[in-house]
Design goal:
Helix content is 70%, strand content 0%. It is mainly alpha-helical and 253 residues long. α1 packs across α2, α6 packs across α7 and α11 packs antiparallel against α12.
Length: 253
């Protein structure tokens, strides 16, 4: 006789513990994002992918800093202001020194700035999908923000390779080192708005947007159509904000 009571319920087998390999996820997000973000939604992680982003970002910044003259870059930046020549010489020197220092600080603190930016992205997109009736928590949102940023990191690495092979690097080279958008068709000195607008439609930026649609749809359980609406609206707001400066510059000319 069997010792099992035929009338007693059979306990379900425990769900297997998902093994998280961040490096597999980094590759997966670029080539199989749907499966990867479903895994992220089940078990979010951020330490290793964020550390990789920061290390590569810092290494790239250091490599570029060895090839550029920050004082010359500051001068080129200020000369884009049509009123700069009217400023007294002493004041020009002060502004140039301040701009040069700001560029150096920004370059060497790029990992910190990246973390702050990703925190803002995660919070804004999580708020957006939650307002649309979606689910998700900040750990999931931050994890998606980091993994979805990797196309940008790919562009950054390519940019460093391109710039390191140039004899000299100008401020305009730094603005669009890889011709992955139509911004290169416009001179940023004479047509800053057109340059800024078309630079926004960058292949790597659009790739990141697509990943964010997939990723935030996975954690929010919203349709990709609703998620795309949130992502695109927030992206357009960022584009408009970045165009405000060039627009003012054009009006002053």
């Amino acid at each position: 006789m069997s010792n099992i009571d035929e009338g007693s319920p059979i306990a379900p087998a425990p769900a297997p513990v998902e093994k998280v390999n961040p490096f597999q996820r980094i590759i997966g997000v670029l080539f199989s994002p749907t499966e990867t973000f479903q895994s992220v939604a089940r078990k979010p992680d951020w330490v290793v992918p964020l550390l990789v982003l920061c290390v590569v970002s810092l290494a790239s910044a250091w490599a570029i800093s060895t090839r550029v003259d920050f004082h010359d870059l500051a001068r080129q930046t200020m000369e884009m202001n049509p009123n700069f020549s009217e400023i007294p010489a002493e004041r020009q020197a002060t502004i140039l020194k301040f701009t040069e220092g700001t560029m150096k600080v920004t370059t060497y603190t790029s990992p910190i700035l990246s973390i702050i930016g990703l925190l803002v992205i995660a919070g804004a997109l999580l708020l957006g999908v939650r307002m649309m009736g979606g689910q998700g928590n900040f750990a999931q949102a931050f994890s998606v923000a980091i993994y979805g940023w990797y196309p940008r990191l790919v562009k950054g690495v390519i940019s460093v390779i391109v710039l390191m092979n140039r004899k000299s690097i100008t401020i305009w080279d730094l603005q669009n080192p890889v011709r992955s958008n139509l911004g290169f068709l416009f001179d940023p000195r004479t047509r800053p708005v057109a340059f800024g607008f078309w630079s926004s439609f960058d292949i790597f930026a659009l790739w990141t947007l697509a990943l964010y649609v997939i990723g935030y749809s996975a954690i929010s359980r919203l349709s990709r159509g609703k998620t795309a609406a949130v992502v695109i609206i927030l992206w357009l707001l960022v584009v408009l904000l970045t165009l405000a400066g060039p627009a003012m510059q054009s009006i002053k000319k």
